[in-house]
């Protein structure tokens, strides 16, 4: 049983309790009291010792989060008495409030572990205005490290208050819609109420095209933007397109990053310019030929998919009227690809493959694959 109390002895309900272990033997807890928030495997930084450092050099094999019940308790049954367990109380911003390392070998089957919330807490007050010094209502104040958690939202006066906080410092992100977000790092919580003023400026939008060396558009796995080493823009990751528009960027140089077939392509761009291109150099070419004519009244699509990167898909629509129907693709990544011909139904939905083939793309070569099209379907 983990008992969480305030310093006056009263129970502390709804307090996040984190249990973690780095022991190689997995533990299987069954909760009988308290609210289970999460069960799963997390990174090593999630487990901390009483001194605030990592519990072990090993990655935790199990991390479980609970909320204490109305009596301030979390009762967990079914822990194997093997090795050490770290118990800590977590604040709203993910900070460690209190922590203990417990040796399960010496712990009795019905022991109680006591942890106390300190009396002294801090309040962070963020005042948000726009470039005209007008209050900004509805801006969110969120944590930066780990999974982002919204801590507070500004009211009509532009002020958001985050309380209670127990740590010594905090990093926050302030944002609203397409306005350029602001990061405030290392706010020292050295007074009962700590205030900061933030100016949110109108964000810039950039339309990003991903093209090969012949200026043909290439559908990439994802595109994202970063500024000063942080993710920037809305949305922060865009998938499987050839043209993207990223909003809420600062009016400065940002880094645009395209991911394609396990490779990364970068370009620096001034966000005050709306148009941007990311060049993906061509490694090879694929020519897909059809061995028989297609119905001239139907639409078809030829699709090329990387076998080891199923997210890498190249498509070309065609409505052939001759026996020499063919499509050429510029390919960024070498390797084995699957070629398919599909009919396009009403609404743009593709049919099952009408013809299939396989091809190995090599650098600086044009590889030809001929698809045998069924004459009766």
Brief descriptors of the model:
5-stranded antiparallel beta sheet, mainly beta, 31 strands, 377 residues, 0% helix, single chain
Please tally the β strands and state the result.
31
| Low-confidence segments | 25-58
Quaternary structure annotation: single chain
Query: What is the typical, i.e. mean, pLDDT?
Result: 80
Radius of gyration: 28 Å
Largest sheet: 5 strands, antiparallel
Distance between the termini: 67 Å
Biggest sheet, strands in spatial order?
4-5-2-7-8
Shape: elongated
Classify the secondary structure makeup into a structural class: mainly beta
Helix percentage: under 10%
Number of continuous helical runs = 0
How large is the share of residues in beta strands? Answer: over 45%
Characterize this entry briefly.
The protein is mostly beta strands and 377 residues long. The chain has strands spanning 2-6, 16-21, 30-33, 35-40, 62-67, 73-77, 84-90, 96-103, 113-117, 122-129, 140-143, 150-153, 159-165, 169-175, 182-188, 193-199, 204-212, 220-227, 230-232, 238-241, 243-249, 253-260, 263-270, 275-280, 284-290, 300-306, 309-318, 326-331, 335-344, 350-361, 366-371.
Describe the model:
The protein is mainly beta. Helices cover 0% and strands 55% of the residues. The chain has strands at residues 2-6, 16-21, 30-33, 35-40, 62-67, 73-77, 84-90, 96-103, 113-117, 122-129, 140-143, 150-153, 159-165, 169-175, 182-188, 193-199, 204-212, 220-227, 230-232, 238-241, 243-249, 253-260, 263-270, 275-280, 284-290, 300-306, 309-318, 326-331, 335-344, 350-361, 366-371. Strands 4-5-2-7-8 form a 5-stranded antiparallel sheet, with no helix packed on it. Strands 18, 19, 20, 22 and 23 form a 5-stranded antiparallel sheet that branches. The protein is elongated. The relative contact order is 0.09. The model is unreliable at 25-58 (pLDDT under 50).
């Amino acid at each position: 049983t983990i008992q969480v109390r305030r310093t006056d002895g009263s129970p502390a309900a709804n307090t996040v309790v984190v249990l973690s272990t780095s022991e190689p033997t997995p533990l299987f807890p069954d909760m009988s009291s308290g609210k289970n928030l999460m069960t799963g495997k997390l990174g090593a930084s999630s487990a901390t010792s009483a001194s605030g450092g990592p519990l072990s050099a090993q990655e935790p094999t199990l991390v479980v989060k609970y909320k204490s019940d109305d009596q301030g308790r979390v009762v967990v049954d079914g822990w194997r008495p093997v090795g050490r367990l770290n118990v800590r109380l977590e604040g709203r911003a993910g900070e460690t409030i209190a922590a203990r390392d417990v040796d399960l070998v010496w712990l009795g089957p019905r022991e109680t572990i006591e942890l106390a919330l300190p009396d002294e807490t801090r309040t962070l007050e963020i005042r948000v205005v726009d470039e005209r010094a007008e209050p900004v209502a509805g801006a969110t104040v969120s944590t930066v490290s780990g999974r982002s958690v919204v801590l507070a939202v500004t009211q009509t006066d532009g002020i958001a208050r985050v309380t209670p906080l127990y740590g010594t410092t905090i990093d926050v992100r302030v944002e609203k819609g397409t306005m350029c977000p602001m990061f405030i790092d290392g706010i020292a919580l050295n007074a009962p109420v700590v205030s900061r003023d933030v100016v949110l400026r109108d964000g810039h939008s950039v339309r990003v095209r991903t093209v090969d060396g012949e200026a043909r558009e290439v559908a990439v796995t994802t595109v994202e933007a970063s500024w000063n080493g942080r993710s920037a823009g809305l949305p922060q990751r865009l998938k499987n397109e050839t043209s993207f528009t990223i909003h809420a960027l600062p009016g400065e140089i940002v880094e645009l990053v395209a991911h394609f077939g396990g490779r990364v392509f970068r370009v620096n761009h001034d966000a005050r310019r709306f148009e941007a291109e990311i060049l993906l150099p061509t490694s090879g070419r694929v020519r897909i030929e059809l061995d028989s004519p297609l119905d001239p009244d139907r639409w078809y699509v030829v699709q090329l998919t990387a076998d080891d990167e199923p997210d890498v898909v190249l498509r070309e629509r065609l409505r052939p009227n001759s026996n020499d129907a063919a499509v050429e693709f510029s390919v960024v990544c070498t390797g084995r690809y699957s070629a398919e011909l599909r009919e396009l139904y009403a609404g743009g939905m593709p049919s099952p493959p009408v013809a299939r083939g396989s091809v190995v793309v090599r650098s600086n070569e044009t590889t030809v694959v001929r698809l045998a099209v069924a004459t009766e379907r």
